[in-house]
TrEMBL record:
Keyword Glycoprotein in annotation: yes
Organism classification: Eukaryota, Viridiplantae, Streptophyta, Embryophyta, Tracheophyta
SUPFAM superfamilies: Cupredoxins
Keywords, sorted A to Z: Glycoprotein, Signal
Protein name: L-ascorbate oxidase homolog
One Pfam match: Cu-oxidase
Signal peptide: 1-24
Xref: Gene3D superfamilies: Cupredoxins - blue copper proteins
Superkingdom, taxonomy of origin: Eukaryota
Organism: Acacia crassicarpa
Length: 538
């Protein structure tokens, strides 16, 4: 072979390798989102809502596992604003979590560029405002993470998928709602339910085909039940977990939770009711959408499908049927069941009891008698710059106490790679919903009454699913296991926004004395600085 031929061959190989390397790199996706106010009538009455790029709900964020997201968020509101990415783990990167313990809010007429990856994740998620009561005005949207083509999913590709953002809604402005809470009073019942920001919407599909419905409860306080007239719901995914594919007539979805179901259009061609109704609420609401067969010539008819029994026990029993599909891959090549969580001895057990005390004559919500208050300086910045006096790791105990409730900026400290057993004890008459940023966790047990160590015998240590938000029934307990493999400052909060706003939250400081980029990324060069962090340099 001549020298010219060799040069051509080497050139071809080099070009091929370069293309291969580019293809192998995770894709970059760039977005600019502008947040503004607008006037809409979601429940028939004109009111101020929060729009993103003029949309309510906000734009759907469709990603693939490990995509690099570069999202410039421009705040045109009259108040500081943040978005948080509900269920995205932000691996080694709590800098991008978008809550007040990790990020300074974006001032009015300013911007911040988020940079994050849905690292090793698939599934149905959401985003929403974490600041003030902005979530009550909108600013939320769907966030779907699709699998990479090289990683199989345990069901045939659906013909299409639909994102359904379902939640309670107030006609009252978010500023008025905030004023009610600031005065020490609870919020009244919401005024209705919305599906995708509307009281009425239609989803169309072809007879004989199967579609995925991605259902998220984006409300402030109310559990919902979801059902479709004449159709079964095959549950396939819960917040990134592939689950055993049971069929259901109806499914409970609590505040902050997401599920994915497959629905086969196997009925006579007509239109069918999609129904969402409130669960366990003082005031009952139902909203409907339409499942339209493309060859339908008949409108919806007949009664709405009835809800399940209004019993907490029924809902708890259904929750126990959600099981991990042990042989299915998630976002990684290895099967979910290859991690034998049930064979690991927990480093420690933490018992968290929620309460609704009066502090200085005003309603607050607390965890182990501590009601959280946000400082002016984000905890993550205070930690990074060694700014003293911002938070206290000794204020909150890891078991319930009998003393008086008080306010504090409470942080629980744990070591990187601890394996925690966390028991949520709910001694109130209201259902709770708890969310942990930065992680998913195994939901290993539900039970009534007081948790005691002998309840461990009832745990599911074989095929409990992982998720990021879990319900705790009234006068009951729920236990989770979580592997602290993600260093950072992580918010553990009530997903019921009134309770979060008035203190039912704290932060988990997952700490490793050895500073290493293998464990945690450096502070972003564009990090916003506020409070006592002003004057420091990223």
């Amino acid at each position: 072979m001549g020298s010219n031929s060799l040069l051509l061959l080497f050139g071809f190989v080099a070009a091929f390798l370069a293309v291969s390397l580019v293809k192998a790199e995770d894709a970059y996706k760039f977005y600019t989102w502008t947040v503004t106010y607008g006037t809409l009538s979601p429940l028939g009455t004109p009111q101020q809502v929060i729009l993103i790029n003029g949309q309510f709900p906000g734009p759907r964020l469709d990603l693939v596992t490990n995509d690099n997201v570069i999202l410039n968020l421009v705040n045109k509101l009259d108040e500081p604003f943040l978005l948080t990415w509900n269920g995205i783990k932000q691996r080694k990167n709590s800098w991008q979590d978008g809550v007040l313990g990790t990020n300074c809010p974006i001032p009015p007429n300013s911007n911040y560029t988020y940079k994050f990856q849905p690292k090793d994740q698939i599934g149905t998620y959401t985003y929403f405002p974490s600041t003030q009561l902005h979530k009550a005005a909108g600013g939320f949207g769907g966030l779907n993470v699709y699998h990479r083509s090289v990683i199989p999913i345990p069901y045939p590709n659906p013909a299409g998928d639909f994102t359904l953002l379902i939640g309670d809604w107030y006609k009252t402005s978010h500023k008025t709602l905030r004023g009610i809470l600031d005065s020490g009073k609870p919020l009244a019942s919401p005024d209705g339910l919305l599906i995708n920001g509307q009281a009425y919407t239609t989803f169309s599909g072809d007879q004989g085909k199967t579609y995925m419905f991605r259902i998220s409860n984006v409300g402030l306080s109310t559990s919902i039940n979801f059902r479709i007239q004449g159709h079964s719901l095959k549950l396939v995914e819960v917040e990134g977990s592939h689950v055993v594919q049971n069929l259901y007539d109806f499914l409970d979805v609590h505040v902050g939770q997401s599920i994915s179901v497959l629905v086969t259009l196997d009925q006579p061609p007509k239109d069918y009711y999609i129904v969402a109704s409130t669960r366990f609420s003082k005031q009952s609401f139902t909203t409907t959408a339409v499942l339209h067969y493309t060859n339908s010539h008949s409108p919806t008819s007949g009664p709405w499908p009835a809800p399940p029994p209004a019993e907490y026990h029924w809902s708890m029993q259904q929750a126990r049927t959600f099981r991990w599909n042990l042989t299915a891959n998630a976002a990684r090549p290895n099967p979910q069941g290859s991690f034998h969580y049930g064979m690991i001895t927990p480093t420690k057990t933490i018992v968290l009891a929620n309460s609704a005390p009066l502090i200085n004559g005003k309603l607050r919500y607390a965890v182990n008698k501590v009601s959280y208050v946000n400082p002016d300086t984000p905890l993550k910045l205070a930690d990074y710059f060694n700014i003293p006096g911002i938070f206290d790791v000794n204020k909150m105990q890891i078991t319930p106490s009998n003393g008086p409730a008080f306010t504090a900026t409470s942080v629980l400290q744990s070591s990187h790679h601890d394996f925690l057993e966390i028991v949520f004890q709910n001694n109130e008459n209201a259902l709770q919903s708890w969310h942990l940023d930065g992680y998913d966790f195994w939901v290993i047990g539900y039970g009534s009454g007081q948790w005691t160590p002998d309840k461990k015998s009832t745990y599911n240590l074989v095929d409990a699913l992982t998720r990021h938000t879990v319900q705790v029934y009234p006068n009951s307990w729920t236990t989770i296991l979580v592997s602290l493999d993600n260093q950072g400052m992580w918010n553990l909060r009530s997903a019921i926004w009134e309770r979060q706003y008035l203190g039912q939250q704290f932060y988990l400081r997952v700490w490793n004395a050895q500073k290493s980029l293998a464990n945690e990324y450096d502070i972003p060069s564009n990090a916003l600085l506020c409070g006592k962090a002003v004057g420091h340099h990223p």
